[in-house]
Amino acid sequence: MDPWEGAELSALKPLPTLWLVLAAAFLLTLLLQLLPSGLLPSCALFQDLIRYGKTKSSGPPRPAAYRAFDVPKSRYFSHFYIISVLWNGLLLWCLTQSLFLGAPFPNWLHSLLRILGAAQFQGLLMSTQPGELSAAGGEPALSAFLVLVFLWLHSFRRLLECLYVSVFSKAMIHVVQYCFGMVYYILVGLTVLSQVPMDDRNVYIIGKSLLMQARWFHILGMLMFIWSSAHQYKCHVILSNLRKNKAGVVIHCNHRIPFGDWFEYVSCPNYLAELMIYISMAATFGFHNSTWWLVVTYVFFNQALSAFLSHKFYKSKFVSYPRHRKAFLPFLF
Ligand SMILES: NC(=O)c1ccc[n+]([C@@H]2O[C@H](COP(=O)([O-])OP(=O)(O)OC[C@H]3O[C@@H](n4cnc5c(N)ncnc54)[C@H](OP(=O)(O)O)[C@@H]3O)[C@@H](O)[C@H]2O)c1
């Protein structure tokens, strides 16, 4: 039997398992929200943990004690991206050093990836011939490198948006959601790095050079990434303009009905763009990386849940809310 096949069968890999569990948890939560309101679990803590921002204030009444666990979205949301820029910047630095200067991964990172059951430790090393590595399913290093660059650029843009574009209200997030968001960006970077083929502590480059690995799906992934990022930025500008006058001065912090760009189709186009960004990374991986598709599935259900709650918020607050507008997916959901 092919050694890679044996490894696939024998190991329950922590990272894919984690993404699968998270995706399933958010799918279940979404399905619960789709139940008729009489059947919906009324547990206040559960509702408190799935809502943030505008949907928190519009949710069921919250016991006063819950406020002790609130942190202001305005100041704390940018922390996710600060963590991501620093952590994923460090991972990118290690990968770049290894790819271009031949520097081995630091011991701590090598051990961490091993603990997380990274793909490179799941049997690739059992292959003895270089050619066997790609045949056995090793991810080209260029794909992982590009995805890590995209993740870093995405985090950096989001950080700049939080600091200079978005206008926040007094909305809150739960401290559990805050901690979850921090861990999320650490795990997502490690997931990308765990796809890089390794030969002990060095990155294994399949073929003669990194550039020789360039394929059509890298170009497609890059174009999709730019396109989705541009739309997400546009949507965040539209949202911030709702709170400004024509001179660009912030005049209130209320929630209004947004119009323009993808808002004509869905209530939360910024969440749809987020999903597209993660799909663009799946494209960059050549569409066949099952671990990354689990990350995409998690993002899908996570963002679909937030979009569903936001859509409900808009429909309950504004009688004139555009009827044709869906929550998350144009014409569908
Ligand atoms: N990958 C992931 O797992 C993940 C998870 C969460 C978020 N995200 C991404 O992070 C980005 C921001 O998420 P978010 O949940 O904060 O988005 P959001 O609720 O749409 O808020 C974005 C900004 O617009 C403001 N805003 C929202 N609705 C408004 C309205 N009707 N009128 C005026 N201003 C409004 C918000 O202020 P206030 O909320 O302060 O009122 C905030 O400043 C999104 O692009 C999302 O996709 C990703």
UniProtKB/TrEMBL annotation:
GO terms of biological process kind: dolichol-linked oligosaccharide biosynthetic process; polyprenol catabolic process
Transmembrane segments: 20-46, 80-102, 133-153, 173-193, 214-233, 291-309
Swiss-Prot/TrEMBL catalytic activity: a 3-oxo-5alpha-steroid + NADP(+) = a 3-oxo-Delta(4)-steroid + NADPH + H(+); androst-4-ene-3,17-dione + NADPH + H(+) = 5alpha-androstan-3,17-dione + NADP(+); a di-trans,poly-cis-dolichal + NADP(+) = a di-trans,poly-cis-polyprenal + NADPH + H(+); 17beta-hydroxy-5alpha-androstan-3-one + NADP(+) = testosterone + NADPH + H(+)
Pathway(s) of this molecule: Protein modification; protein glycosylation
Gene Ontology molecular functions: 3-oxo-5-alpha-steroid 4-dehydrogenase (NADP+) activity; polyprenal reductase activity; polyprenol reductase activity
Keyword flag Membrane: yes
Designated name of the protein: Polyprenal reductase
Species: Otolemur garnettii
